[in-house]
Each structure stands twice: as structure tokens, then as C-alpha cells.
Design a protein that fits this description.
By secondary structure, the chain is an alpha/beta fold. It is built from eleven helices and eleven strands.
Length: 290
């Protein structure tokens, strides 16, 4: 039984596809299939079956997965321990939300590149739900995400706290007002992030607590696009102050001070528990913490 065959088998279960496994491991799909067949010969049974959801483990496959994960984790940690004295090399894929990518990540990556020039870093910018799914599937080493993260399978380092503002066009009748009763926004059109967004859930939760049903007319994933639509007086929204401070100072947008509205967007680093974090991931975590 070869370690590389076990690693391929675990990766195939994580991503649910032999073709995606081949892409992530940078080998051909026939090579992936050959490794799985070699492992099946070694254990004497079928390990994976194809279904409508991709490849799934058989009962024997689940048993092998449970037995092999601790072994592979220990081996990975052993290798990492022996490499700790040398330069950090290789390729690391990290995720980030739009807020972190725009306002925090450049400084972090500059420090990371300066400290570890041989480390190649790729960045994927998505919403938190997509990033956590990719992290679980093994497509990311580590990710910046909007908190809280509900699942106990993740390790979390809380990093950033950004106040959220209700924003509107300068033409909106409530533009610039303070201590606004939330009920006065019930008739406004809202432009919010997609329904799975943590921020959107917090915003809707706040207005629900106030007994106000807000009317979401547009769902947009890009904060820049949201700000542009708000500037055009097509609706109101909620965005981190850091994302709109220049527009507010230049008079291109206005804030609305809603009574009792004090939401913050919390962001942090998230990694998969039970899987040793790579040296690159540990280095990124320390730089972000500092």
C-alpha cells in the first residue's frame, strides 16, 4: 500500500470527483484511476462508486478513510516538523472575502512574500459560504472568512472588526439623518448581498427584531457594484464603513443613522481542524496575527 495512493483516495472523497482530484494534484485522470485501482487491489475490495453526487466511498472505503486519516495526518505533521528549519517552498492556495482582499490582504501578502520569497501563493476571492465549502473539500489551505463560523470542524482566528453602515444616495429622503426609526426604512428598496451571506443574515436579523420586513429588490455579491447602484438611488444597503468611507467623505454617498443599529462585520482566518496546517498556512496565520 503506497502513501500516494492513500492520499489520492482521501482527496477523491473530499472533492467528490476524480477529474477534480486530477486537477488539484496536477496529474492525469487515468493516473488517478490507476492509483485507486492499485489501492483496491491492496485492500481486496471496491473503495469508490460513482453516483449522482460524484464519487462516494463504499462501506469498505469509509472504513479505510477512518483508519487512514490519522495516519496521513501524523505523516504530514512529521514531514512538516523535519522541514521547519528550511525555507518555506511550494504552492499555497488561500481564500478571502472581498472586504479582506481589498483592505487587508495586500499588506499581509507583502509581508509573506518578503519573509518567504520561495512560497507561491494563489488567492481565490469568494463569499464565505463558497470559501468554507472549498476549505472542507481540500481546495484551499486556509481562508479569510466572515465570522461567526458555526461548524466545529474549523479552527478560527478572529482578526478584523468593521462597523457596518446603512448607506443611501444623497438624494434619498433620509440621507444624513440620525436616530432614524427602523420602520421608516420599510418602504425603501434594499440592495443586499446574496442570501447565504453572513452580513445579510445579520442585517435581516436586526430588522426582524425591530418588527420591520425589509424589501430586498437586488442581490449582488460585489460591494463595489452595490455602492454604485446605491449612488444611482436605486436602493439602500449596508456595507462596511471601510468600503465606503471615501464616497462618504466626497459626498457621493450618505449614511443613515438607524436607531439601535450597531452591527459589525467580523472577519478572521479559518482552517480545517484535524488536518495539519501547512508551514505556509502557519506563516500566514502568524503574520495576520501580528
Amino acid at each position: 500500500m503506497e502513501v500516494i495512493d492513500l492520499e489520492t483516495f482521501v482527496k477523491a472523497i473530499e472533492v467528490g470527483s476524480l477529474s477534480e482530484t486530477a486537477r488539484q494534484l496536477f496529474v492525469s485522470q487515468p493516473a488517478i484511476s490507476a492509483r485507486i485501482r492499485r489501492l483496491e487491489t491492496a485492500v481486496g475490495g471496491v473503495l469508490l462508486v460513482r453516483s449522482g453526487r460524484g464519487v462516494q466511498p463504499t462501506p469498505l472505503g469509509r472504513h479505510l478513510l477512518e483508519r487512514s486519516l490519522p495516519v496521513l495526518n501524523q505523516l504530514s505533521q512529521l514531514v512538516a516538523d523535519f522541514q521547519d528549519d528550511g525555507p518555506i517552498q511550494g504552492r499555497m492556495v488561500i481564500g478571502a472575502t472581498d472586504l479582506v482582499a481589498m483592505h487587508y490582504l495586500p499588506t499581509i501578502l507583502r509581508h509573506l512574500r518578503s519573509s518567504h520569497p520561495a512560497l507561491e501563493v494563489s488567492v481565490r476571492v469568494e463569499g464565505t459560504a463558497v470559501l468554507l465549502d472549498e476549505l472542507l473539500r481540500g481546495g484551499l489551505d486556509i481562508t479569510f472568512a466572515t465570522l461567526p463560523v458555526a461548524s466545529d470542524v474549523f479552527g478560527v482566528l478572529s482578526l478584523y472588526h468593521d462597523p457596518q453602515l446603512v448607506i443611501a444616495s444623497t438624494e434619498h429622503p433620509l440621507a444624513g439623518e440620525t436616530d432614524v426609526d427602523p420602520r421608516r426604512l420599510a418602504d425603501s428598496a434594499w440592495i443586499l448581498h446574496k442570501v447565504e451571506s453572513v452580513t445579510r443574515q445579520l442585517v435581516e436579523g436586526f430588522f426582524d427584531e425591530q418588527g420591520v420586513a425589509i424589501r430586498t429588490e437586488m442581490e449582488i455579491s460585489s460591494p463595489e457594484a452595490i455602492a454604485e447602484l446605491v449612488r444611482a438611488n436605486l436602493g439602500v444597503s449596508v456595507l462596511p464603513r471601510r468600503s465606503v468611507v471615501r464616497d462618504l467623505e466626497a459626498g457621493r454617498l450618505a449614511s443613515i443613522g438607524v436607531r439601535n443599529f450597531s452591527l459589525e462585520r467580523h472577519s478572521g482566518l479559518v482552517w480545517r481542524q484535524g488536518r495539519p496546517l501547512s508551514r505556509g498556512g502557519r506563516a500566514l496565520r502568524e503574520i495576520a496575527r501580528e
